[in-house]
């Protein structure tokens, strides 16, 4: 009887619940599957959010893995441009669609189906994240590796469901979290509720969460492909957090030899043989850094290298790992050197970084710069505001003008330029030097006075 029961249990898939350490590897296609993105935008402007949608669409066309890719949204599918998948994939509903959607006559109308492939969880980030976690651990619980791709407003991720993300990390989840409309100054006009400048700091608290803040489409493509390889071929128990933006701009084709740097967290984007300054940019603020480099060169005859930093978190983790190895191997013949130190060691001059996140994000690498290189970190500390991108970036001090001034001031501190040059630059850019810092609490809240109301007396004789 016992033998029979064991045989029946094995026929049903074994004892449940059960967790496996390993599962089948998936046939991940070559990087060329993203060729349309790697070649650049061809003069067209698009956001990295839209690039991410194109990458998901490309994976859904791959026969070997299309059934494993599961797009998940809480309620912003149309904001992210995912509505085309409503008809293509269908939204999973256990009992099918029981109503006629009001957009039925539109080409990309809302469609639910019993065999739907997409999860639309409504305004329910906790439910969406729980669904992601279930899919992300399916390789272990069901011996069925899935590729969940949960796209949401980045402000409503770790800030709202951080404990579920931590639990997913503890459960060795694998998949992609896509923090869309990210950046304190990039999601303009939506104020402090929506403007995210700290999700990467929160992501870094989860040891097996690998996070990136790319600027260009080819960076995003390389990162997504590397994640697929690491998680579904190499069986690494990590999950990826990527921030993507809603600002439209042209995307160049991928230069040669940058893939390793993109994955490691930093690569040289724009080289100047006369460079005496190293400018680092992350996410869309890399474009402000590129503008600043041009201003420094054309107006101040100061040459700089421009570095794209895809992940300050990965650079910092690498630096910590090298530091710990060297501390515990004092007699080792070879001292390990961090990636950021290797990249900058052959250069000279101060280092200035700018991101659309809090200063703490880029400050992490200060300890790993070669030779104690002078370093300035610019970021978006403080609550978001409702304004234009240009005004927001000026307010938080991460636009090209503030990057130029920060560079000149640090050069003046090092005795390389006259301080009067900094004063002239501040005047030329018409910067407000007396405004409070962006993170300062308001001394007097802005209260709109109620208009005086004089009650009119009524009655006989009036």
From TrEMBL:
Q: Where is the Transketolase-like C-terminal domain?
A: 265-399
Pyruvate dehydrogenase E1 component middle domain segment(s): 27-252
Q: Keyword annotations for this protein?
A: Pyruvate
- UniProt superkingdom: Bacteria
Supply the Pfam families for this chain. PDH_E1_M, Transketolase_C_1
Protein's UniProt keywords contain Flavoprotein: no
| Statement: the UniProt record of this protein carries the keyword Zinc | no
| UniProt-listed Gene3D superfamilies | 3.40.50.920, 3.40.50.970
This one is known as Pyruvate dehydrogenase (Acetyl-transferring), homodimeric type
